[in-house]
Design brief:
With 169 residues, this protein is of the alpha+beta class. The chain is 24% helix and 41% strand. The protein contains 4 helices and 8 strands, in the order E-E-H-H-E-E-E-E-E-E-H-H. The chain has an 8-stranded antiparallel β-sheet with strand order 1-2-8-7-6-5-4-3, covered by helices on one side. It is globular and about 45 Å long. The protein starts with 13 loop residues before the first strand and ends with a helix.
């Protein structure tokens, strides 16, 4: 198998809004889909790329099965940030569908403000394109996610994921 390496892809995630309620994130990695999927779904690996290097992990639980739940809690300075969800569909290493709820959402019912995240991985010549379609319940939630600074944190996390998978986990 030939592998095309683009070198450093840092900061290359592309974020678009295909509809009033959706965010689409696309990023290429110089690694096989199976390796990217493994890094996305294995707690010890998630802790090495998700969030900021300076964050302290408090919880990283993944019950990778349809109906299983996941939960991440990190402390960054004086602030704790927590997310959770459940797995709706798993087709390793090509597709992962789950819900996501930000536990600190400033809304009466954070569960109602949760999203459905559809992750797809397409591999060609050793390069895997990761696409994450985030489906929010309404435009207000979609815009709140975008306005939260999500892109900056996402670029950092995906750069860290690139570093991890190109070192052949």
């Amino acid at each position: 198998m030939s592998t095309k390496h683009a070198g450093n892809r840092h900061g290359s995630a592309v974020i678009t809004t295909p509809s009033d309620t959706e965010i689409l994130i696309t990023r290429a990695f110089d690694a096989p889909a199976a390796l990217v999927f493994k890094a996305y779904t294995t707690p010890d690996l998630v802790k090495r790329w998700w969030g900021f290097e300076t964050s302290e992990w408090l919880v990283c639980d993944i019950d990778l099965r349809v109906g299983g739940r996941w939960r991440y809690v990190v402390r960054h300075g004086d602030m704790e940030v927590a997310f959770h969800g459940d797995y709706r569909e798993i087709d390793a290493p090509y597709r992962l569908v789950s819900t996501e709820v930000f536990e600190g959402a400033p809304v009466p019912d954070p569960e109602a403000a949760g999203t459905l995240n559809i992750v797809t991985l397409e591999e060609s010549d050793g390069v895997t394109t990761l696409s994450v379609l985030v489906q929010a319940p309404d435009q207000f939630v979609r815009d709140a996610i975008i306005d939260s600074g999500m892109e900056g944190g996402l670029q950092v996390s995906y750069d860290r994921l690139e570093n991890l998978v190109t070192q052949s986990v």
